[in-house]
């Protein structure tokens, strides 16, 4: 506040009136006041304390306008600042001589204020009464000027802005300036200038028209002059701000016994009674006990005169008294936001029973709709469709005396009268409770609002019906799951807002889906003014005001707050860790490797590239996508679009583990052969580089050597390919490989569909073999070509010499080999084409006589018209038939032309494909014309046109005439010619049709039959003749129908043959292209760079191929192991069991330690001595297949792995019994669909047997996994329904056969009550616990009578473990514990209630911090994982990802010596074998000498071969002596 009084010296005063300026300066300055205070003739009297806001405008001389203050009421505004300046005359100046009738007060408008010098100021004012502008120039001490300059500057700027505004927007300027010039008081000579800056009471700055321009400046003025008002908190809102601000009734409040007895059949919990008590207060039944009765955001203050007022910086508003309702926070109703499962519906039912309406019989006025409506005592409940029936059940259970009706929307005009009567106001008035859904409300929008007045041309057929919902004044309107209205702009929210009501309630356990602004929709529905109508006002609320608003409007209890009041059975949470099968483990490892490569990361999570760090946007996005894929893989290989595409399972939704393994084998085999093909091509290019080098004297031998090297590699793959095809043919029980070819080339679409799946693998194998045969053909061809070039080079080979003859022989030999391979490549397509061509040849002699024959004229007058019509249409059809035969024969001739490659008289040129394309253009045109003329014949026969065929022909003709030659299509000249011929043969409308002739004949017969029945002899004769004609015409019609049907079939045969011929020539062309020249011109010198590049590619491809071979061996080993389970695995070197081993490409397995120790010295396989590189060995891990179950521990400060044993972790309750887990694991299933799916199926079957009738909720963030699970469970005969199924909720509740309910994160399950379930299966751990709490709250809620158990399934040693750890750590942090620094030691005695309470606190905190709609990504991408957690999820649990190349094993010295001894033993055994030491199997001999084992080990260790030989010789002597003794005993 500012109140300043000062004296200033007047130097100059200038008066301007009617563009005339009168200066008064120096000693005469005060004379100006004589004119200023002079009375104005005709001016209204002025009262010093009755001036007000401007009522009119005046024009200044400079063109600007100013406001004029006529009347003023000082009690209606607060004084922000008051500056009083006494204009003191100087020594040389004389005081003004004022007349007795002078004005005591001159109201002025402050126009401007400026500071010319440090001690000199100028300001301008305007006297509206005399239309005079007064300019003052005064001076004072600088400190004096400083005391009021800022205030005058603010006042002048306010006045200037107000003056520039238009009359329509002037009231939007809140602060205003008041200025007046006062006569000197008695006894004084100094006039007084008084300036006030005021703020009117009750005017709000927010929401005015000019707010966006003046808001900041005016708010700054308000905060400057009311500095003690709360400063707006600029920190962003969080969801916790709402949950922290809600009202929690104190436990000490007095509750009426009437509330406890409101529901006779239900006992309300104490906290529910307190909630109902608060709700009754909100509805005005009980008095409120609110200590703070001031409006939201207002705080007490004083203006500069000491007057008491209340200021809101949020609303930009000042008020004087609290006697008005400055906001509607005292409205009847509010937000009931009890935590999920605490009985919000029961509280509302109790409220309905306690507070009923005494309503008048006559209509009441609704100010919101501005119309009269019917009064009702009913409660309207608007709810999601999925829980509407649940509301009906709850009301019937707790308050059976209340009548309930389900309103399904306005009835259609064509519905029954009963349905029309139900959708009326009168019908709805009969019930206590009316239920409807948000879907119905959305459809009511056009029936709820009156349409705009429009002049209609025609009168409406049906009268518009209003929605009965808006024609009733409801006692109470409730929005259940009110978060669905969000911002309040949806159709449902619009209708809900305008429904007349006395009380309004927004009910939701999670009222915020996105952020705090979701409350806007609720405030709009509740009509909480001014926040509902002023959109930007809610956003301006500071945190203190926000808490004040929410604490009045919303109530919420959490489970941890009222645990002492609750009586819900306990819930146990058990983590079940499921190991991958070996197949799944291999697939997951491969996916993890792909993830590392795609994200530019090493297996330990460190970046591989400096420009792609962990914070790079591309890396982050890739990590996010791959995390989703890895999580989906942990569930099933078919979860996620990318995973399904990777397996090529577009049309298959579910595969068993063995089918997945086969797919992995096939994919690896495909990759291997692709790399092999690229390697062979690179080897061939090396040969090309030599053969195209001009500077080499004899490049041919080196090129041949390289081609032969490539050919040798090709032969290996061709051989293995043939073996694979034969094995698959044996598996399919095919008598010959041609059987598969016939199925692949089947003409029938039905046959293709039927056998495509069966022969898919053999088809893939044949294609693979073909690719290598093409390479073999190319190698042979190029080798023959090198022999030809060498022979043709006279510098190297003398013509007709022995070498020449040998080269010529080799040339022919290799070319013959290439030709043989070429024939094999073309054999299949050629056979199929020849078979189809033979079918076409067989058609040649068919349909030769297709014309309509003439009918013998038998006389007859009545039938003559029929014959005339027949003659006309017959001529048309016969002309068409002749042209059809011509074009048909032409087509057959082209299709039966000999294949070029099969014609011995023609030599292949490599241009066969292009030549065939030219012939095909003509063929295509003939087939199109043939199709068109068949359609024309059908028109002539039936009288109906084929518009599609005609349209296609018209478009083709149009294209053929196009100026752009590239758009003319096939053989345009021929097409135009045939189209012209066809046009001349088309039947016209006057020609009729053959079917019309049949109809005419039948009509004549009908007419004659009637007359013949009356004994008309002439008619009888005519009838006989006509009947003969009719029989012949009918026969013609039937014949033509059959002909057309056969011709349509022939079209398909023509098309198939054409495509087969084209495919044959395409393959011929492709084979020719594989042996084209490497370059157009020879290289002047040997291309060293290209040769190095190709040899480098060969080396790279070889390494990749070795890796694929090792993996292929491993995958095949997995398949064998699955078919023939093995016992304990023992190493072939140390004979000890192992879990971590190595598999070689030759198929042998050893423990990891032995193999790598051996390989460092020998570089071969210990058993078969096959040479091995590091890439030839693959590490394998045999997992412990035991499923472990451990109850979640929320007491221990550590965050152990779920796989930890129970001895390593402390459980709050007794965990699941081992005997139960053993029973679950021993349940046999018919098929295996993956570890997790199988385990869940076994668990459900176990529950069926051990807890009959129990039901389970299965929750996953991935909806498509639930579909996979549904298929698997149905195959295991487990009843399933889901939230997305029609009537799925009702089936789960009432059908005993339905044992589990599928619930996904994207489906809205809010408010769903499934207390009939006692088990919850969480299919995967979630990093956002708020998501899983949505599922758990469906069963762990009021009404649950049994103890519940939540099972979380985790796959060990995957990203799921890391995600689980993050989730648990987060909850521990909410419980106030430091999971990192805890020592791990815990007190054995655990306070169970305290632990449960802490867990409830953690869960409540998660819900507070969670924006539920933002926790799940769009599509099937699962939950949102923030950037900070991505790396932790992927690499938080280190996996066994080490490579054989990076092998390092830490062993003790004793162990190392033992291993080295074994290796040396094997080395010496090899030396003995190499020295031809007697004995078939030295290894067996040495191992069998038990007594001499120590001596053998010593000999090996010392390297004494002679000692070893001596031991072996002693063994032989002992055996011989034993044999001799046995012989003597026999004798």
TrEMBL record:
Residues covered by the RING-type domain: 1131-1169
Q: Which domain of life is it from?
A: Eukaryota
- State the InterPro entries in the record: ATP-helicase/E3_Ub-Ligase (IPR052583), C144_05_dom (IPR059033), Helicase_ATP-bd (IPR014001), Helicase_C-like (IPR001650), P-loop_NTPase (IPR027417), SNF2-like_sf (IPR038718), SNF2/RAD54-like_C (IPR049730), SNF2_N (IPR000330)
Give the compositionally biased regions (Low complexity).
1197-1209
List UniProt keywords, sorted A-Z. ATP-binding, Hydrolase, Metal-binding, Nucleotide-binding, Zinc, Zinc-finger
Q: Which Pfam families match?
A: Ferritin_C144_05, Helicase_C, SNF2-rel_dom, zf-C3HC4
- Report the Gene3D superfamilies cross-referenced here: P-loop containing nucleotide triphosphate hydrolases (3.40.50.300), Tandem AAA-ATPase domain (3.40.50.10810), Zinc/RING finger domain, C3HC4 (zinc finger) (3.30.40.10)
Q: Where is this region: Disordered?
A: 41-62, 735-757, 1188-1209
Q: Which PROSITE patterns match?
A: ZF_RING_1 (PS00518), ZF_RING_2 (PS50089)
Query: PANTHER family attached here?
Result: E3 UBIQUITIN-PROTEIN LIGASE SHPRH, E3 UBIQUITIN-PROTEIN LIGASE SHPRH FAMILY MEMBER
Task: State the protein's name.
Answer: RING-type domain-containing protein
Q: Organism source for this protein? A: Paraconiothyrium brasiliense
């Amino acid at each position: 506040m500012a109140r300043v009084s000062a004296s200033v010296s007047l130097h100059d005063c200038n008066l301007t009136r009617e563009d005339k300026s009168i200066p008064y300066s120096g000693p005469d300055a005060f004379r100006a006041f004589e004119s200023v205070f002079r009375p104005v003739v005709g001016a209204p009297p002025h009262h010093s304390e009755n001036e007000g806001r401007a009522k009119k405008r005046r024009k200044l001389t400079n063109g600007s306008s100013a406001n004029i203050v006529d009347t003023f009421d000082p009690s209606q505004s607060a004084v922000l600042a008051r500056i009083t300046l006494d204009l003191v005359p100087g020594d040389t100046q004389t005081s003004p001589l004022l007349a007795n009738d002078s004005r005591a007060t001159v109201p002025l408008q402050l126009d401007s204020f400026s500071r010319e010098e440090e001690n000199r100021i100028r300001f301008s004012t305007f006297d509206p009464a005399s239309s005079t502008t007064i300019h003052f120039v005064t001076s004072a001490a600088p400190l004096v000027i400083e005391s009021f300059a800022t205030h005058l500057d603010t006042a002048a700027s306010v006045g200037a802005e107000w003056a520039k505004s238009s009359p329509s927007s002037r009231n939007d300027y809140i602060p205003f300036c008041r200025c007046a010039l006062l006569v000197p008081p008695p006894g004084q000579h100094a006039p007084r200038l008084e300036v006030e800056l005021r703020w009117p009471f009750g005017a709000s700055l927010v929401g005015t028209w000019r707010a966006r321009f003046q808001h900041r400046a005016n708010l700054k003025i308000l905060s400057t002059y009311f500095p003690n008002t709360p400063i707006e908190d600029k920190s962003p809102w969080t969801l916790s701000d709402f949950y922290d601000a809600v009202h929690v009734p104190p436990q000490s409040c007095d509750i009426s016994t009437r509330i406890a007895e409101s529901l006779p059949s239900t006992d309300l919990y104490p906290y529910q009674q307190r909630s109902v008590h608060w709700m009754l207060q909100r509805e005005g039944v009980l008095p409120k006990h609110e200590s703070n009765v001031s409006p939201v955001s207002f705080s007490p203050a004083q203006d500069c005169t000491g007057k008491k007022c209340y200021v809101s910086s949020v609303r930009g508003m000042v008020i004087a008294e609290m006697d008005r309702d400055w906001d509607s926070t005292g409205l009847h109703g509010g937000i009931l936001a009890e935590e999920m499962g605490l009985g919000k519906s029961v509280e509302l039912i109790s409220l309905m029973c306690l507070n009923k309406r005494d309503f008048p019989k006559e209509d009441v006025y609704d100010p919101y709709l501005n119309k009269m409506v019917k009064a009702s005592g009913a409660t309207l409940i608007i709810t999601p469709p999925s829980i509407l029936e649940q509301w009906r059940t709850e009301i019937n259970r707790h308050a059976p005396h209340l009548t309930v009706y389900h309103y399904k929307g306005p009835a259609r005009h064509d519905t029954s009268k009963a349905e029309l009567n139900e959708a009326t106001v009168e019908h709805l008035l009969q019930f206590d409770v009316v239920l409807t859904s948000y879907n119905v409300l959305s459809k009511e929008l056009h029936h709820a609002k009156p349409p705009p007045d429009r002049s209609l041309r025609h009168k409406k057929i049906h009268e518009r019906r209003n929605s009965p919902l808006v024609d009733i004044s409801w006692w109470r309107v409730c929005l259940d799951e009110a978060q669905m209205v969000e911002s309040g702009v949806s159709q449902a929210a619009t209708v809900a807002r305008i429904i007349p009501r006395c009380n309004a309630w927004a009910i939701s356990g999670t009222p915020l889906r996105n952020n705090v602004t979701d409350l806007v929709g609720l405030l709009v529905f509740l009509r909480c003014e001014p926040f509902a109508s002023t959109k930007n006002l809610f956003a301006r609320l500071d945190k203190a005001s926000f808490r004040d608003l929410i604490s009045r409007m919303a109530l919420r209890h959490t489970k941890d707050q009222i645990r002492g009041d609750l009586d819900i059975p306990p819930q146990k949470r058990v983590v079940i860790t499921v190991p991958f099968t070996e197949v799944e483990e291999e697939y997951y490892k491969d996916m993890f490797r792909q993830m590392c490569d795609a994200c530019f990361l090493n297996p330990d999570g460190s970046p591989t590239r400096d420009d792609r760090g962990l914070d790079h946007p591309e890396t982050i996005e890739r990590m996010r996508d791959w995390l989703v894929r890895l999580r989906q893989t942990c569930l099933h290989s078919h979860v996620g679009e990318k995973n399904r595409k990777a397996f090529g399972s577009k049309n298959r939704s579910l595969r068993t583990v063995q089918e997945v393994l086969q797919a992995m084998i096939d994919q690896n085999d495909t990759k291997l052969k692709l790399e092999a093909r690229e390697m062979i091509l690179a080897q061939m290019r090396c040969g090309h580089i030599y053969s195209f080098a001009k500077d080499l004297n004899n490049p041919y031998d080196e090129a041949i050597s390289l081609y032969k090297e490539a050919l040798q590699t090709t032969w290996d793959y061709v051989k293995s390919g043939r073996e694979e095809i034969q094995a698959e043919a044996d598996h399919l029980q095919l008598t010959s490989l041609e059987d598969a070819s016939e199925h692949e080339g089947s003409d029938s679409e039905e046959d293709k569909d039927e056998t495509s799946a069966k022969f898919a693998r053999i088809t893939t194998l044949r294609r693979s073999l073909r690719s290598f045969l093409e390479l073999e053909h190319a190698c042979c061809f190029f080798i023959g070509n090198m022999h030809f070039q060498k022979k043709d080079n006279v510098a190297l080979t003398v013509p007709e010499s022995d070498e020449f003859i040998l080269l010529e022989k080799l040339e022919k030999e290799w070319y013959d080999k290439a030709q043989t391979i070429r024939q094999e490549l073309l054999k299949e397509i050629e056979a199929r084409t020849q078979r189809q061509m033979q079918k076409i040849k067989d058609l040649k002699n068919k349909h030769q006589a297709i014309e309509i024959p003439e009918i013998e004229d038998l006389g007859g007058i009545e039938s003559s018209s029929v014959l005339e019509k027949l003659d006309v249409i017959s001529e048309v059809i016969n002309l068409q038939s002749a042209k059809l035969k011509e074009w048909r024969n032409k087509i057959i001739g082209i299709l039966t032309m000999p294949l070029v490659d099969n014609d011995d008289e023609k030599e292949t040129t490599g241009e066969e494909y292009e030549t065939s394309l030219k012939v095909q253009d003509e063929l295509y045109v003939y087939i199109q014309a043939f199709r068109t003329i068949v359609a024309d014949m059908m028109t002539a026969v039936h009288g109906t046109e084929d518009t599609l065929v005609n349209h296609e022909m018209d478009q083709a003709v149009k294209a053929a005439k196009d100026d752009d030659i590239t758009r003319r299509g096939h053989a345009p000249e021929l097409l135009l010619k045939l189209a012209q011929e066809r046009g001349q043969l088309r039947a016209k409308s006057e020609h009729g049709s053959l079917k019309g002739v049949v109809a005419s004949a039948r009509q004549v017969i009908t007419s004659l039959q009637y007359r013949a029945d009356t004994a008309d002899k002439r008619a009888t004769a005519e009838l006989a003749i006509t009947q003969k004609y009719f029989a012949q015409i009918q026969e013609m019609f039937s014949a033509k129908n059959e002909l057309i049907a056969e011709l349509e079939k022939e079209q398909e045969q023509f098309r198939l043959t054409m495509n087969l011929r084209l495919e044959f020539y395409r393959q011929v062309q492709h084979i020719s292209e594989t042996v084209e020249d490497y370059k157009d011109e020879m290289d002047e010198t040997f291309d060293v760079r290209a040769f190095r590049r190709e040899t480098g590619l060969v080396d790279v491809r070889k390494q990749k191929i070795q890796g694929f071979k090792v993996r292929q061996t491993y995958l095949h080993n997995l398949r064998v192991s699955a078919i023939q389970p093995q016992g304990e695995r023992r190493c072939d070197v140390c004979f000890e069991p192992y879990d971590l081993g190595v598999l070689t490409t030759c198929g042998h397995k050893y423990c990891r330690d032995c193999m790598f120790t051996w390989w460092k010295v020998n570089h071969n396989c210990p058993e078969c001595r096959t040479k091995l590189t590091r890439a030839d060995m693959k590490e394998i891990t045999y997992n412990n297949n035991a499923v472990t179950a451990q109850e979640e521990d929320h007491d221990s400060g550590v965050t152990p792995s779920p796989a930890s044993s129970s001895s390593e972790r402390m459980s709050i309750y007794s965990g699941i019994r081992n005997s139960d887990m053993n029973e679950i694991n021993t349940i046999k299933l018919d098929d295996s669909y993956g570890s997790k799916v199988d385990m869940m199926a076994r668990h459900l079957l176990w529950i069926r047997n051990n807890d009959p009738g129990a039901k389970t909720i299965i929750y996953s963030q991935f909806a498509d996994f639930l579909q996979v699970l549904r298929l698997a469970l149905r195959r295991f005969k487990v009843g399933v329904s889901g939230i997305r199924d029609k009537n799925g909720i009702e089936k789960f509740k009432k059908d005993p056969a339905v044992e589990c309910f599928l619930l996904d994160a994207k489906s809205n399950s809010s408010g769903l009550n499934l207390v009939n379930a006692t088990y919850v299966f969480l299919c995967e751990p979630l990093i956002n616990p708020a998501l899983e709490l949505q599922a758990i709250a469906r069963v762990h809620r009021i009404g649950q009578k049994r103890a519940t158990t939540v099972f979380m399934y985790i796959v060990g040693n995957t990203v799921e473990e890391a995600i689980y750890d993050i989730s648990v750590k987060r909850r521990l942090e909410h419980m106030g514990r430091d999971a990192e620094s805890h020592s791990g030691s815990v007190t054995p005695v655990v306070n169970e209630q305290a632990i449960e309470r802490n867990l409830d606190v953690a869960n409540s905190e998660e819900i507070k911090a969670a924006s539920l709609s933002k926790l799940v990504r769009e599509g099937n991408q699962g939950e949102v994982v923030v950037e900070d957690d991505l790396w932790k999820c992927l690499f938080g649990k280190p996996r066994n990802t080490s490579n054989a190349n990076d092998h390092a094993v830490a062993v003790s010295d004793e162990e190392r010596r033992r291993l080295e001894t074994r290796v040396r033993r094997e080395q010496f055994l090899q030396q003995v074998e190499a020295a031809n030491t007697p004995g078939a199997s030295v290894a067996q001999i040495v191992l069998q000498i038990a007594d001499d084992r120590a001596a053998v080990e010593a000999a090996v260790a010392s390297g004494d071969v002679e000692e070893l030989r001596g031991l072996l010789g002693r063994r032989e002597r002992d055996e011989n002596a034993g044999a001799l003794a046995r012989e003597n005993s026999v004798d």
